[in-house]
Design brief:
Helices cover about 50% and strands about 10% of the residues. It is α/β, with parallel strands linked by helices. The chain has a four-stranded antiparallel beta sheet. Strands 6-5-10-11 form a four-stranded parallel beta sheet, with helices on both faces. α7 packs across α8.
Length: about 625
């Protein structure tokens, strides 16, 4: 289904052509003066030079061919050469009806679906998730959903840090504390215990203790490095400890990510791709891509037009150890072998950009990925406190993610209970739903690459550009539709349905069925009769165009901007229109059809952002 802008532009192209001008000047955009018009065309300004004619005269020529348009109620030339446009209400209503009857709300799916992998999350195992992990999870989840909504085959991979020095530290510290465990007995040949010798709480304490101790004690550090080497080379006891670490850590990570409504399709990590490294290194050597530089094996990736020096991609250190470069390249080897993606999107801290420039160039240069495979770096900025520094606890430490979520939930629970509209248990569940929206919308409403201030007070407000405000708007629409549903049931009951006055049931079933009635054409969207209704219709009509832009630019923040515009426009319409008390049944049904479509658009948008709306607030 074409976007509204595309349809209008086609109409303008015909008018430009009929007036004797090239159709390429006919592009239409949203008006930057909504007080004057809804859309505008500035093509006459650009055409003036080519046709040696005053832009206003060109605009007048074009407008003369729009007077009988089925599309425009207003098409006027304005000096020095703008064309102001307003759409006919019935044209907008017909567009929305078509959109309502489409399963994807008029969004064109990819004709040839792509295979896309989204690499996001990226936590290290054996460490608790903290606020620094928030952005990758939230942005990556939204990107995955956006790509999937356009009809692609999308796989989300968490890419765990599970094979590095931290594992050697944990093993060394565990042996120091419990040397009697069989994992450290070189002569042990039996079955290792199935139960881990530590809890998640103990494990999360072991790593920072070991890390701090290693910085002060070189002998301990060397032992941890050697333990890492032995683990990576198949030490039986250390592999058993590693399996325990993975089992305990991944279970805890899944619980925490579930609280964020973040779901990964793959739980792969660095350990999964170690088997690919020897052959990859051999290939890079044999084909002449890799060479030794001061003992390290590297691939040159600088290009002639680089404005800044791009260092070589290091494949192996001088001691033969692998690095992040090595692991990331091996991960691409595995992805090519198992999935053959058309695109891999990496959602990571923007400070890692140089690393990914090196990896991407090396992967392309050496044929690890096909020439047509698109490798995309989506770098995100820092989440800061009100002081402009990275977000921390009141005590100055790094805040655990579950603590942040709990603080937001508590704040939302307090606000919901202050309204005293729901019971305590429902308030707690609603607080979790609204709290997640506050966190996710607060983050995603900012352009990913920019740093932003995480302001708990602002993000949890029910006013302004916030998640709770968006949810409150959706809940308001749900409430209206439920009341309408109950009134429709009551009418049926009065018409002879036995022993049912229509008011004893919730009405939600009838309300939820309204969407199907709009799609089936039983409830028709009518031409707007006032400016508030038309404004809402025009905002809703922008949905598929907005999705296309978000998809092309990988820009979830533009969904947030659109949501806020729709919510504001709906609330103006709501305050200016008597919806349920409207006595003209046909007009009321038109309002309901518009509300059903508005709700579908809003709920689709928040699903793409990774949260949902409660039934009541």
């Amino acid at each position: 289904m074409n976007t509204l802008s595309e349809l209008i532009t086609k109409e303008m192209e015909q008018a430009f052509g009929a007036a004797g001008y090239d159709a390429s000047y006919a592009k239409v955009t949203l008006s930057n003066r909504p007080d004057l018009c809804e859309y505008q065309c500035n093509g006459a300004m650009a055409a003036a030079k080519a046709y040696h004619k005053a832009p206003f005269l060109i605009a007048e020529d074009v407008v003369a061919h729009l007077q009988d348009s089925a599309c425009f109620s207003l098409a006027e030339a304005v000096k020095p050469g703008f064309i102001n446009l307003k759409l006919k209400p019935e044209y907008v209503a017909a567009f929305l009806q078509q959109m309502a009857e489409d399963e994807h709300l008029g969004v064109e799916l990819e004709k040839i679906p792509r295979t896309i992998m989204v690499d996001y999350g990226g936590p290290n195992v054996a460490k608790p998730l903290h606020v620094g992990h928030l952005r990758s999870a939230i942005i990556g989840e939204s990107v995955k959903r956006i790509m999937r909504y356009k009809g692609n085959q999308v796989t989300g991979d968490i890419h765990l840090g599970d094979w590095g020095y931290q594992m050697g530290l944990i093993i060394t510290e565990l042996e120091k504390r419990k040397p009697q465990l069989p994992y450290f007995d070189e002569g042990f040949t039996g079955e290792y215990p199935s139960e881990a010798p530590f809890t998640i709480g103990e494990l999360e304490e072991i790593y920072p203790t070991a890390s701090a101790y290693a910085k002060e004690h070189e002998e301990y550090r060397e032992k941890a490095l050697h333990a890492t080497y032995l683990l990576q080379n198949g030490h039986r006891g250390y592999r058993a400890v590693w399996n325990h670490i993975m089992q305990i850590s991944v279970a805890d990570l899944k619980k925490n990510y579930q609280n964020l409504n973040v779901e990964f399709d793959l739980w792969k990590g660095e350990a999964d791709v170690q088997k690919y490294i020897p052959d990859m290194v051999r290939k890079l050597k044999d084909e002449g891509f890799a060479h030794y530089d001061e003992g390290a094996l590297v691939v040159d990736v600088c290009e002639a037009d680089d404005k800044k020096e791009v260092p070589p991609c290091m494949i192996l250190k001088s001691d033969g150890a692998a690095l992040y470069d090595t692991t990331d390249l091996a991960t691409l080897v595995e992805r090519e072998k198992l999935y053959r993606p058309n695109e891999v999107i990496y959602v990571v801290d923007k400070r890692q950009e140089l690393h990914f420039v090196q990896v991407f160039r090396c992967a392309k240069k050496t044929g690890i990925v096909r020439p047509e495979t698109k490798l995309t770096f989506l770098g995100f900025g820092t989440m800061n406190g009100k002081d402009g520094k990275p977000f921390k606890t009141r005590e100055g430490g790094v805040m655990r993610l579950e603590k942040l979520i709990q603080e937001i939930d508590d704040e939302m629970y307090k606000k919901i209970m202050d309204n005293r509209t729901v019971g305590e248990e429902e308030a707690k569940e609603t607080a979790r739903t609204v709290g997640l929206a506050a966190i996710k919308y607060g983050d995603l409403s900012n352009q990913a690459a920019k740093d932003y201030v995480f302001d708990v007070d602002r993000f949890t407000s029910f006013e302004g550009n916030t998640g709770p405000y968006i949810l409150y708007t959706i809940v308001r629409i749900k409430s209206i539709l439920a009341k309408y549903g109950r009134s429709e049931e009551a009418k049926l009951a009065r018409g002879g349905e036995p022993e049912d006055d229509g008011l004893t049931r919730c009405g939600e079933t009838a309300a939820s069925d309204l969407s199907g009635r709009v799609q089936a054409g039983d409830l028709h969207l009518r031409a707007a009769e006032n400016e508030f209704e038309k404004a809402l219709m025009l905002e809703v009509a922008r949905f598929n165009e907005m999705i296309d832009v978000v998809y092309e630019e990988i820009a979830p923040h533009k969904i947030c901007a659109y949501l806020y515009d729709v919510a504001n426009t709906f609330n103006k319409f709501y305050h200016e229109t008597k919806i349920l008390s409207e006595t003209d049944e046909e007009k009321k049904a038109g309002y309901i059809a518009l509300l059903v479509l508005t709700k579908r658009v809003l709920t689709t948008c928040i699903d793409l952002l990774g949260f949902e709306a409660p039934e009541r607030m």
